[in-house]
Amino acid sequence: MDAVHVRMAAVWFVLGALALAATVSTEVRAQAPAVDSAAIQILQRMTDYLGSLQQFSLDTQNTFEEVLESGQKIQFDLAASVVVQRPNKLRAERKGDLISQFVVYDGKTLTIYNSADKYYAVAAAPDTIEDALHFARDSLDIVPPSGDLVYKNAFDLLTANITSGMVVGKSIIGGVKCDHLAFSGPVVDWQIWIADGDQPLPSKYVIVTKDDPAQPEYIVLMSNWNVAPDLNDALFTFTPPQGAKKTDFIRMDTGRTSAR
Amino acid sequence: MKTILKVTVLGICLVLMLLIDVLPQLLSPGLQLVPEAHAVLGVRRRTARRTAVVVGSTTAASASAQTAAAQQQTAAAQQQAATAEKEAAAAQQEAAAAQQEAVAAQQQAAAAPPPPPPPATGAPLPLGTVVKALPAGCTPTPVGGVEYYHCGGNFYRAVFQGNQLVYVTAKP
């Protein structure tokens, strides 16, 4: 009788342990971040490299989707070249586009100029690129192309909310062999293609906005990277051309234009 | 013997319960975080399917180039229409928003203001109304060094809304 009791106890113990193990493993699997460290490594190599560059220039081809009330998605395209000189100079110019326009930031002010209408507006801006990008987005509703990647702490910003990340594989973008990474977060899913050579620069960047049921995408193709461009201050300062007319921004923070 | 049988049956039952708990997650990847390889295969499969569609349409296009051209034109026309529709909708929305603001401002100023007239032709718009493009027939009218555009009883001033140059009704 004792032997039976001992055996019974043993069986119960084993079954209990099994049940516990299964439950725990299920929970761990559900909670564990499925972020592949290889993907993180490639991403960080890119952001470290880009952050280390004192100056660079590139061309971007941006496609963004707008959702009609019917739910139909329409794509709009915008070509722009971007020049960055850390820590406090930036120029974004729409080139070869229907609208000829540029935005310059010289460390003190941010100016936008439409050359067809000859209108420009100036706003006092914070003294670093990072703060100026923030200000441009929040107060002026201006988002320079691929601004996400220009931030010096781009890695922290990009990975702050990701719940999964993986290396999809290799891909050729614009003739450049790239590592294709895919990340997912609660509000956006995003993919990035990073050159796999000595200069780990991004070639493509796609963001899917998931809190809109139509899930519109933003796609930017990056080309003509120059990590040692020939720059001068004139590139980042605005001198009003003859006949240029000054106007204002409709500010997001105050909601009104300044009265005249 | 009876006890051992009981324990065995109980044990089998427990194992079955565990399997039921774990199996659906293994069988339906949609409900859980899938292993990386699986997800990658999923992406590849979708890509392949999309490529097949593109190839199919290319064949159709080469079979009848004229049809393709016509389709493209139709598509372009549709796109233009859609863009126009969208812009019109946006302009309407903005006009409506501005109207609401104007109404609120008027209500603060006067106790019982009459509702502003709808933006019909000829009727002046509330100040601060934003339009994407100037109405037809507006003439540049500089007042005190600032360029206004005058038409339909309204004065407009060009301002930047984001990176868009828009026109807002103003009082010179």
Strand sequence of the main sheet of chain A, in spatial order? Answer: 1-8-9-10-11-12-2-3-4-5-6-7-13
Q: What is the first-to-last residue Cα distance of chain A?
A: 100 Å
Strand order of the largest sheet of chain B: 1-5-4-3-2
Poorly predicted ranges of chain B (pLDDT <50, ≥5 residues)? 32-71, 102-120
Explain what the structure shows.
The complex is a heterodimer of chains A (260) and B (172). By secondary structure, chain A is α+β, with helices and mostly antiparallel strands. Chain A is 26% helix and 38% strand. In chain A, a hairpin with a 4-residue loop joins strand 6 and strand 7. The termini of chain A are far apart. By secondary structure, chain B is α+β, with helices and mostly antiparallel strands. A five-stranded antiparallel sheet of chain B has the order 1-5-4-3-2. The longest helix of chain B is centred in the middle third of the chain and has 45 residues. In chain B, strand 4 and strand 5 form a beta hairpin. In chain B, helix 2 packs across helix 3. The chains are: A alpha+beta (260), B alpha+beta (172). At the A-B interface, helix 1 and strand 8 of A face helix 1, helix 2, helix 3, strand 4 and strand 5 of B.
